């Protein structure tokens, strides 16, 4: 199982929207609705933002939204805030009882 | 709360056992996972274990070397790591799984494999 493909970096100004993509294959992202997204600030543990493609865990603001089309999942951060500057990772069930993560995207708030 | 311990500096070929103490939820009711992150790198799923400990899955790179286990009476998760390699150097996170996602993470424990 190969890692999912994410852009290494993304950026936007406060108040803008930014979308981060996560590309896999029909064996992982395209084959299951078990895509999740995580936010990680430097030196901290990751935090779940989105699960099952588009669902929010309790406490996560709806500025974060998820979607999927074919083999590509996307995370959109609306109304960018300074505290959104972090690394973002996607994850998907990859079949055969394996899970796979993306390589991560560093989001910079300009 | 999930609190990992046991990370250390170990020589290549050596062994280490990580522990994770869980509290605040019904530990036995959840699949638990180990996820690792090499310095400056991304996340990597390592192993999964079912709530009753009867089913275990591993990433191919650790099969035969790592063993995940749990003691529900002690609300604890373990990762026995043998034949350690330099590429196993990472922060190891203890994580709870819910709805095919990883919803609750420990703070991590650092394993360094080096001579």
List keywords for this structure.
heterodimer; A: 110 residues; mainly beta; 6-stranded mixed β-sheet; 3-stranded antiparallel β-sheet; 44% strand; B: 115 residues; 7-stranded mixed β-sheet; 4-stranded antiparallel β-sheet; 0% helix; globular
Give a brief rundown of this model.
The complex is a heterodimer of chains A (110) and B (115). Chain A has strands at 9-12, 18-23, 35-40, 47-50, 64-69, 72-77, 86-93, 99-101, 105-109.
What does this structure look like?
Chain A is 0% helix and 44% strand. Chain A is mainly beta. In chain A, strand 3 (35-40) and strand 4 (47-50) form a beta hairpin. Chain A is globular, with a radius of gyration of 13 Å. The mean pLDDT of chain A is 95. Chain B is mostly beta strands and 115 residues long. Chain B has strands at residues 2-5, 9-10, 16-22, 32-37, 43-49, 56-58, 66-71, 76-81, 90-98, 101-105, 109-113. In chain B, strands 2, 4, 5, 6, 9, 10 and 11 form a 7-stranded mixed β-sheet that branches. In chain B, strands 1-3-8-7 form a 4-stranded antiparallel β-sheet, with no helix packed on it. Chains A and B meet through strand 7 and strand 8 of A and strand 5 and strand 10 of B.
């Amino acid at each position: 199982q190969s890692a999912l493909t994410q852009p290494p970096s993304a950026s936007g100004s406060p108040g803008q929207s930014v979308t981060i993509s996560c590309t896999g294959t029909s064996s992982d992202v395209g084959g299951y609705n078990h895509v999740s997204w995580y936010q990680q600030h430097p030196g901290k543990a990751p935090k779940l933002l989105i699960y099952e493609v588009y669902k929010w865990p309790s406490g996560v603001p709806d500025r974060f939204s998820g979607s999927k089309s074919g083999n590509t999942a996307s995370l959109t951060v609306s109304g960018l805030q300074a505290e959104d500057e972090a690394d973002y990772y996607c994850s998907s069930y990859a079949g055969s009882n394996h899970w796979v993560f993306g390589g991560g995207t560093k989001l910079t708030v300009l | 709360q999930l609190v990992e311990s046991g990370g250390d500096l170990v020589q290549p070929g050596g062994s280490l056992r990580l522990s994770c103490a869980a509290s605040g939820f019904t530990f036995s009711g959840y699949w638990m996972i180990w996820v690792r992150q090499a310095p400056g790198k991304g996340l990597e799923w390592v192993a999964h274990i079912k709530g009753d400990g009867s089913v275990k899955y591993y990433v191919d790179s650790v099969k035969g070397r790592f063993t995940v286990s749990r003691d529900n009476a002690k609300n604890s998760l373990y990762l026995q790591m043998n034949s350690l390699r330099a590429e196993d150097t990472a922060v190891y996170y203890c994580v709870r799984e819910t709805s095919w996602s990883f919803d609750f993470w420990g703070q991590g424990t650092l394993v360094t494999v080096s001579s």
